[in-house]
């Protein structure tokens, strides 16, 4: 435009702008905000010239320094001092509140467009601002923008920006409850698949903090099943994405307990496919569960609702059960449950037979018949254990199609009775020996008196 100093005698527009930006440290907070708002409409030009970087650098510097001093935030007047070091006594008291010092700028920056927030938060992250404060700001920004949004596109753009920025932060600094709240909101929004995956990944990584109510999300529109099982499976996949061995056992078992409750809740759904039910059961390694009783009870409910399943489909579902981790009551119930396939009942009985054999072996090892030096108390305890085994074995109600197992079990019961007799015999012998020793000891004490 030929606005050179040699022509006009004055500084040109570019020189005037440079001089103005050199004094940016003296700008009030309100003037700085107004300048950034104007740059939102000229973002390509402002970015290429470095103007916006200078604005943001000054703004972030003032936000970062708020740990020590707090500006009196006011965007209503351009004459307000944006960075006062002294206020009246009442205001000074309020500034002592650490929460206020950390969040005073939230309302002012919530007026910026999503693309400017993207640039702003990235620079704040690069300057190591507290991730907990940044996550709170992003949640505040999302809520504030949604309240003023006029279209669904505005909401989608805001949500995508917030998710992208949260994904840059340390997960331990993000509120799990708020993340799940965002997930519920996105169910009615058509955000990008990338943003949705990032949100689910963050939630999945913190799944041990969830509750059953968090997981009971309705299925997508047009689906026949009640709850969004696919979403829960994706969250579980994110939770163990680095491998089950990398997840602490306490967290793993906490999630397993939660998923067991979820499976029991969704099992009565008549539209839940067998493949999805089994996928939920097998989504976690066997080491995550100490007991499979909850899974068994969920399977019972599933078979009752889905009575039309063939034997092959039922056996596939039963493959998710770990019979060794079923209680004796559950195994006994399974053996008598006609809705379960006969092979599954047989597996449960075989597992119980193995357990009974191991108990008998332990009894044999602890029996006085083997160890003649065992104490009277040990013999008595062994007798009680044998009686418990006999009572336990007597409670097993075996089906006719497992007659061979019944014969084996009866033989084992006879062996237990024999061991009980031997144990009682040894107890009597030990009692007689003890009585004899006591008598001999008393005679030895009375002998010196007779001699005297």
UniProtKB/TrEMBL annotation:
An individual GO BP term: protein ubiquitination
UniProt keyword Coiled coil, yes or no: yes
Superkingdom of source: Eukaryota
Keywords, comma-separated and alphabetical: Coiled coil, Ubl conjugation pathway
Coiled coil feature spans: 409-436
One Pfam family named in its UniProt record: NPH3
Ranges for domain NPH3: 103-355
InterPro entries linked to this entry: NPH3/RPT2-like, NPH3_dom
Protein family per UniProt: Belongs to the NPH3 family.
Name of the molecule in the record: BTB/POZ domain-containing protein At3g22104-like isoform X2
Naturally occurring in which organism (per UniProt): Nicotiana tabacum
Gene: LOC107792626
């Amino acid at each position: 435009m030929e606005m050179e100093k040699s022509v006009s005698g004055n500084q040109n527009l570019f020189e005037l702008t440079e001089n103005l930006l050199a004094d940016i440290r003296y700008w009030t907070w309100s003037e700085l905000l107004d300048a950034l708002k104007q740059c939102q409409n000229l973002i390509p030009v402002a970015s290429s010239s470095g103007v916006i970087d200078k604005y943001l650098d000054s703004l972030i510097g003032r936000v970062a320094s708020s740990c020590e001093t707090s500006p009196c935030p006011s965007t209503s007047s351009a004459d307000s001092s944006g960075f006062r070091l002294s206020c009246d006594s009442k205001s000074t008291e309020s500034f002592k509140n650490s929460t206020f010092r950390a969040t005073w700028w939230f309302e002012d920056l919530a007026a910026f467009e999503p693309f400017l927030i993207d640039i702003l938060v990235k620079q704040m992250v690069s300057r190591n601002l507290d991730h907990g404060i940044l996550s709170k700001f992003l949640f505040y920004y999302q809520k504030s923008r949604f309240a003023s949004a006029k279209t669904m596109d505005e909401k989608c753009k805001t949500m995508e920006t917030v998710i992208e920025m949260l994904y840059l932060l340390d997960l331990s600094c993000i509120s799990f409850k708020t993340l799940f709240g965002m997930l519920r909101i996105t169910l009615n929004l058509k955000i990008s698949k990338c943003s949705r995956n990032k949100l689910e990944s963050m939630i999945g990584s913190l799944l041990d903090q969830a509750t059953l109510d968090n997981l009971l999300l309705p299925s997508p529109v047009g689906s026949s099943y009640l709850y969004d099982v696919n979403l829960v499976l994706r969250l579980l996949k994110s939770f163990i994405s680095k491998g089950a061995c990398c997840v602490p056992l306490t967290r793993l078992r906490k999630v397993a307990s939660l998923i067991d409750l979820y499976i029991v809740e969704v099992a009565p759904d008549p539209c839940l496919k067998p493949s999805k039910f089994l996928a939920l059961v097998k989504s976690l390694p066997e080491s995550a569960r100490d007991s499979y009783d909850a899974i068994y009870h969920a399977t019972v409910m599933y078979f009752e609702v889905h009575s039309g399943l063939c034997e092959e489909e039922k056996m596939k579902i039963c493959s998710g059960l770990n019979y060794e981790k079923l209680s004796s009551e559950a195994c006994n119930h399974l053996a008598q449950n006609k809705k379960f396939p006969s092979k599954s009942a047989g597996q449960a009985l075989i597992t119980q037979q193995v357990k009974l054999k191991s108990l008998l072996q332990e009894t044999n090892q602890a029996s006085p018949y083997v160890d003649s030096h065992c104490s009277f108390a040990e013999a008595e305890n062994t007798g009680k254990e044998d009686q418990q085994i006999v009572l336990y074995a007597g409670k097993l109600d075996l089906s006719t199609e497992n007659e061979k197992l019944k014969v084996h079990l009866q033989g084992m019961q006879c062996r237990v009775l024999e061991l009980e007799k031997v144990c009682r015999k040894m107890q009597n012998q030990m009692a007689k020996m003890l009585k004899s020793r006591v008598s001999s000891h008393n005679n030895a004490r009375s002998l010196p008196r007779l001699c005297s």
